[in-house]
Write a structure and sequence with these properties.
Number of helices: 28
Strand order of the largest sheet: 15-27-26-25-16-23-24
Strand content: 15-25%
Radius of gyration: 34 Å
Low-confidence stretches: 1-19, 584-590, 794-817
Shape: elongated
Helix content: 40-55%
Mean pLDDT: 77
Oligomer: single chain
Length: 817
């Protein structure tokens, strides 16, 4: 049993009004020890810096912090918050995403504290909370519940008002008395009050904030439309003989409020689901963990952010590992699906390394912490995802620029429409203005690009491919040529046994492998590991003693039967020269690596060759299917490698690549890439991210392949976390689908406005229909983007000539093996 203690001695947040709790939390976040929980130190330009352990946080040149924003509804809100943050002295940069409701703030501790720039956000009418704070998640859940309650109230009241309005629609002249019509109007007015006072609250609050700050957002025309409709209908109820007494519009008001809230609520749900990959990753770390005390006998539960390198922690089944480390006690399995895209649990025995963010599935283990905070692989992944989520693609930036001028034009158009209709019917004139205000709200236009891009990025992230640059999706869709590196990309990092050639009659291949494995087990050389991996199950019957290893040459040892039944044999394993059979034979089997096993036959060093093992880089099992799939999609595939040309040609032949070039220096790779680009081709580069920096940076779009790459320093637009090349062609097809969806969304938004605005100006579109059209247009954009939540692997990974039904990558890869 552990001796649990409270996580920290910080006072509890008092229960009270929202603002009181907000101010209290902002003050707590001024503690430098809290900054690392929602940010990281960096240079003044935003580049990450190596921050020594124990250094004071406030001494960093700048901090990059990520916050979640509440109260946002549109692109104009994002622009307002950016302007408010950038006006604060000490804030160097601010980027706000209208789609994810998150912000990245680069600030200098010497000039401003978090409470200072958070107060600027509050003065602009919004709230900012740390992106990884539990209270932020609670606030988001409360926002969802409030939206649901408003939608339910609006729906219930709409049904009641429609019931009272129905007699006026179906009654013939003389069927309704004046008293009955007045009673129905008063009943509708009373039931509309909860809609106006409660359900419409967010629209009116946002509009009042806009008026106070002298700006325009998408809620202002909507709130004006609601207020005008209610005022006109109220005047008609109180004074039936007045200029507005001919007709009331409570049914239209409640209907379009219900439709708008339906659209907002569904957008909220879909946004949380499709753009939730970032939050799903960020919230994997536990808030606290059991740390071993100095007496090495008890464990105390402490906050995760208090961990330091060298601490020993205990992680229970079902908990996430809070830091990178190595297991010092116990064996378990870990779920690393959200970090690598691999859904199968992986074994983590004693001594193995575990990564922060993965889940302990099987048994309690003790882990010695090796990396914490921003040094963990988990933190690097989160940083990449946060950076991508806050980027604005070119089309989205264009929509942001036109949002405010468009809204100003909407207000002008509504005034002109009202002025045109006023002489004939003032009541109808105001309702025409309301229809124009509502139907022209550019919500669909502002959502068209970012929601599709972020949905695609979230889909790729769930499958183990991080999008570092959202603009890369647009570039990837235009790619017609893909260039692969060889080592570590098309091939695995290690080597594999290709063939066994025995030189002694009667010596079976399995016996030769068993003898070679007895020596190879004493070495960590890649060739030795490949021989051990290929050895038969009974290879342990041979034991090597008096082992001598000559670096770069091979091993010499006495090998005997484990039972002691056979006399020791002096064997050599390594190069042909080391084996004593002559260096000239080493290249007899082509460009692949040759390992020779020989036996000394006398005391003079004379050796006889027993067997020769051909080793080569192991092609990834899915590589050929990937190449076929890309070629089937009309993409030319090339290979550039710094390895020998013979080895490059062998791998290219196995993978089905016709265009291959070896003996390339990094500069030579870049020159070959630029030659392809000069021919008018759009080129994507897939490399290991370690020595391919120049060519990755020079390509139109690039993939860094390999989980061992320092993610924060990668030059690529996409980072492959798992071990499957399949993500490259799948990302290509998803990018093409994403651009199609973006174009569909933009065309829909433009067509919707082109059709509905003239109808509203002409007075043929009632307010309730305008509200329905606005809600449906935004909802259609989000629903269309949600189609990108599935990977298109089955269609893309169907090799050329595969009959229907189509086969997925996993099946095709297995069949290739």
């Amino acid at each position: 049993m552990s001796n649990a203690t409270p996580i920290s001695a910080e006072p509890d947040v008092p229960v009270g009004p929202w603002q009181q709790r907000q101010d209290h939390q902002a003050a707590l976040l001024d503690d430098p020890q809290e900054w690392a929980s929602f940010g990281r130190p960096c240079a003044a330009g935003g580049a990450p810096v190596e921050w020594p352990p124990g250094a004071a946080p406030q001494d960093a040149p700048a901090w990059e912090s990520h916050v979640v924003l509440s109260g946002m509804h549109c692109a104009a809100c994002a622009l307002t918050i950016e302007e408010a943050l950038r006006s604060v002295r000490g804030v160097l940069q601010a980027d706000v995403s209208a789609t994810t409701h998150r912000a990245r703030v680069l600030w200098q501790p010497a000039q401003v504290q978090p409470s200072g720039w958070m107060a600027a956000v509050a003065r602009a009418g919004y709230q900012a909370l740390p992106a990884v704070d539990a209270f932020a998640r609670t606030a988001r859940q409360q926002e969802s519940r409030r939206a649901l309650w408003r939608w339910l109230v609006a729906g219930f009241c709409m049904m009641q008002v429609m019931m009272y309005a129905w007699p006026a629609y179906v009654a013939q002249p003389g069927d309704l008395s004046q008293e009955m019509e007045t009673l129905l109007r008063w009943a509708s007015w009373v039931i509309t009050l909860p809609v106006v006072c409660f359900a419409c609250g967010p629209f009116f609050a946002s509009a009042l904030r806009d008026v106070r700050l002298r700006r325009v957002s998408m809620d202002l025309p909507v709130a004006l439309g609601m207020a005008i409709t209610f005022a006109v209908s109220t005047a008609g109820t109180f004074d039936p003989a007045g200029i507005f007494g001919r007709e009331v519009f409570f049914d239209s008001l409640t209907m379009f409020v219900f439709f708008l809230l339906t659209g907002r609520w569904l957008e909220l749900r879909l946004r949380d689901r499709t753009a939730g990959a970032l939050e799903a990753v960020m919230n994997r770390l536990p808030d606290s963990v059991e740390r071993r005390d100095a007496d090495a006998a008890t464990f105390t539960r402490v906050a995760t952010r208090r961990l330091a390198v060298g601490d020993v922690i205990r992680v229970l089944p079902g908990e996430a590992f809070p830091a990178d480390g190595r297991i010092t006690e116990g064996n378990t399995q870990a779920d690393e699906a959200l970090l690598t895209g691999e859904s199968t649990p992986v074994d983590r025995p004693l001594g193995s390394r575990v990564v922060a963010g993965s889940y302990n599935l099987q048994a309690p283990v003790q882990v010695r912490v090796e990396s914490v905070g921003g040094d963990t692989r988990f933190a690097q992944i989160v940083a990449l995802m946060e950076s991508a989520s806050l980027q604005k693609p070119r089309l989205a930036r264009l929509a942001d620029r036109v949002a405010r001028p468009f809204l100003a034009a909407v207000l002008v158009a509504a005034v002109l429409a009202a002025a045109y209709w006023w002489p004939s019917d003032p009541g109808h004139a105001l309702m025409v203005a309301v229809a124009v205000l509502i139907v022209t709200c550019p919500c669909a236009l502002s959502l068209a690009t970012p929601v599709a891009m972020l949905t695609a990025a979230g889909t790729l992230a769930r499958h183990g491919l991080l999008v570092r640059n959202l603009q890369g999706l647009e570039a990837l869709a235009a790619v017609d040529t893909i260039v692969f590196d060889k080592t570590g990309t098309l091939t695995r990092d290690g080597m594999a046994l290709q063939a066994v050639h025995t030189s002694i009659a009667g010596l079976a291949h399995s016996d030769a492998l068993a003898l070679a494995a007895a020596l190879a087990r004493q070495s960590v050389h890649p060739a030795s590991r490949a021989l051990c991996a290929a050895a038969p199950a009974d290879a342990g019957r041979w034991v090597a003693t008096q082992v001598v290893e000559e670096a770069g040459s091979g091993l010499t040892a006495f090998v005997t039967d484990a039972q002691g039944a056979a006399a020791p044999r002096r064997l050599r394993l390594g190069s042909a020269r080391h084996a004593g059979v002559g260096a000239g034979e080493e290249g007899a089997h082509g460009a692949a690596l040759q390992v020779v096993l020989s036996e000394e036959v006398d005391g003079q060093g004379t050796a006889v060759e027993l067997a020769r093992f051909t080793l080569a880089e192991q092609l990834r099992p899915e590589a050929r299917a990937v190449v076929q799939a890309l070629q089937h999609e009309g993409v030319a595939v090339h290979m550039l490698s710094g390895d020998r040309m013979a080895s490059v040609q062998r791998v290219a032949g196995q993978a089905g690549i016709d265009q291959a070039q070896g003996d390339c220096t990094p500069a030579g790779k870049l020159a070959a890439l630029q030659m392809l680009q000069s021919e008018g081709r759009h080129v994507a580069m897939v490399g290991d991210g370690l020595n391919d920096g120049p060519v990755l940076a020079g390509a139109h779009v690039s993939f860094a392949f390999g989980s061992a790459v320092p993610l924060a320093r990668a030059q690529a637009d996409f980072v492959v976390l798992g071990a499957s090349l399949a993500l490259v062609p799948e990302a290509l097809l998803l990018a093409r689908r994403t651009l199609r969806v973006v174009r569909q969304n933009l065309w829909w938004a433009a067509l919707y406005n082109a059709l509905c605005v003239p109808l509203a100006v002409l007075g043929t579109m009632p307010a309730w229909l305008a509200g329905l059209g606005m809600a449906l247009s935004s909802l259609l954009v989000v629903l269309n983007a949600s189609r990108l939540a599935r990977m298109p692997g089955e269609k893309l990974m169907e090799p050329v000539g595969t009959p229907a039904p189509a086969r997925g990558l996993a099946r095709a890869a297995l069949e290739t093996v």
